[in-house]
Give the backbone structure.
Amino acid sequence: MNKLISAALAALFSAGSAVAAPLCGELGFAGLLAKCNRGEPIEITLGSGKPLGKGPIALQSGAYYEMRVTADGSAELALTGAQFFRAIWMNEIVINGIEVRPMAIDSLEFDEAGTATLSFIAIKPGSYEVKIPNTTSDSQKVAISIQ
């Protein structure tokens, strides 16, 4: 019985290490934050009457990403996406060189021009969106899927 349990645990842990390397084979000491585990940066632009992004975004669960949200200052605008923000593990948000390590966020609001960089690991597979609140245009939202 002990041999059976040991074999099952060994299989579980060996399978877990293969799944834990979504973008690179050997994560090494840095783990999920390793350079080889980073996806392409995501660019979001907040501007009055301008589209947020360039089409849908596909992320890989377990991979590290940076989302740069840039406001041009043309209007006081926010970016909401509580369901998306709950489907990721937020490492930090950097605003004007100040690093914030939140447990969770619902939205970001820009009163003037600036950039906020969110670094995170995509966790929960599904379809999400981030958008400018109280807008109906498809260009004012970005579809994000975590696979």
Remarks:
- Residues 38-146 form a domain with the Immunoglobulin-like fold (CATH 2.60.40.420).
